[in-house]
Amino acid sequence: MWCRYFGSGMMKNLVSGLVALSFALAFSSSVRANPKYAAIVIDGNTGKVLHSKYADAPRFPASLTKIMTLYVLFDYLKKDRLSTNTKFYVTPHSAAQPPTKLGLKPGSYIKVSDIIGSLVTKSANDAAATVAENIAGSEAKFARLMTSKARAIGMSNTVFKNASGLPNRKQVTTARDMAKLSVRIMNDFPQLSKAFKIRRFKYRGRGYRNHNGLLYSYKGTEGIKTGYTRASGFNLTSSVKRGRKHLIAVVMGGRSARSRNAEMRRLLNRNFPRAVSTRKLPVHQRMAALDPRRAKAPMRKIVVAGSSTSWNNRNTQKPKIIKASLSSQALGVGKYFGRKGSEGFDIQVGAYQDRNIAVGKLAALQTKASNVLNGHEPYIMHFEKNGVNYHRARFSGFSSRSGASIACDRLKRTHKMACIVMAP
């Protein structure tokens, strides 16, 4: 009977329209009933907000946290404080992180390049904690560094408490802040952020598929990150380019990965026609458009500083600070990561295959020779030679070669300790 009045083609259109309307109403009702939901879509070229729903409401970031972990890591790479060949030491704390994880073993080493691959694909929690402990000495210190950097790029409603996004009720963010982070990591590290495109990652013979399903199913997707905990729901940030148009979108609090991905596609499809084909505006203009309320706030220069270290409680076997050579061939002369303040001369008091012995030497000297070493930061620099791992025990922060030489002479004379001066 319906076909008699409307015709089969009109009937199909009517049915399709009713289905679409029903889906829209159902989704709208679902969003209202879901206290975890939040979303934002911005034009990646201009920073203009094209869609916003609860974008400033506090939410749990889950593994979106790892975007900031990578931001910090990328900053060290960009400033040549380490390289992708640098090896990070795996502590018992890092190895004990709950899944998802690579299954890193305590006392082993993992290359920075493998850490990056594992974070963007597997979202490995043990790899994230390894970054934290090697850069800052502890995950708590690294989280404070992350929060400080969040403030520096305008993420005013975000607090980080760990490097992985594992549950912590005080670790919160917003959809808008995550969009800001996405803009900045792609702008500040255009080459390194291409890692978010990685679809598959292989580590020690085992392959891992990127959790971001849009990389495989939505044209133009360039990353960037998924996240899930029971408290957060299913989160996703996306960067999608088609022609000269670029969208950055954040969906938080999905009830499942499938429904979250469907919502992301819906928002992207709806807003691509509204995006503009233009050259990217300078980052400060895009950030101002993304958050007009804070447009007048000056952008602060981002500075990465290493953590000061006391070496107390070393029996926990957690490193307080580790520094690494830029490559296995660089035997200690050159640039390091994690150092606080400006470059200067170091003194080396030994090199040991057993890392715990190196820690013990530093701790003992810091106590016995405090009159010589007060104010100078102890650290361990790992390097590899002929397949063997070594740990150089050093104190940093001597402003001149003569000052470092005087300190060395006093250690030799008073404490019978071998010592050599290392140039910056």
Task: Characterize the structure shown.
- 37% of the residues lie in helices and 21% in strands.
- With 424 residues, it is α+β, with helices and mostly antiparallel strands.
- It folds into three domains: 1-33; 35-294, DD-peptidase/beta-lactamase superfamily (Beta-lactamase); 319-422, 2-Layer Sandwich (Alpha-Beta Plaits), CATH 3.30.70.
- The strands form four sheets. Strands 2-1-9-8-7 form a five-stranded antiparallel β-sheet, with helices on both faces. It has a five-stranded mixed β-sheet with strand order 10-12-13-11-14. It has a two-stranded antiparallel ribbon with strand order 3-4.
- Strand 12 and strand 13 (388-398) form a beta hairpin.
- Helix 5 crosses helix 6, helix 6 (125-136) packs across helix 7 and helix 8 (175-188) runs antiparallel to helix 11.
- The longest helix has 26 residues, at 8-33.
- It is elongated and about 75 Å long.
- The model is unreliable at 1-6 and 296-342 (pLDDT under 50).
Keywords:
14 helices; Beta-lactamase; elongated; Alpha-Beta Plaits; alpha+beta; 5-stranded antiparallel sheet
Architecture of the largest domain, according to CATH? 3-Layer(aba) Sandwich
Based on secondary structure, the structural category is: alpha+beta
Mean pLDDT across residues: 82
Shape designation: elongated
Helix share bin = 25-40%
- Report the CATH superfamily of the largest domain: DD-peptidase/beta-lactamase superfamily
CATH class descriptor name of the largest domain: Alpha Beta
Q: What is the distance, rounded to the nearest whole angstrom, between the alpha carbons of the first and last residues?
A: 88 Å
- The spatial strand order of the largest sheet comes to 2-1-9-8-7
What would the CATH topology of the largest domain be?
Beta-lactamase
Which parts are unreliable, with pLDDT below 50 for 5 consecutive residues or more? 1-6, 296-342
Number of domains: 3
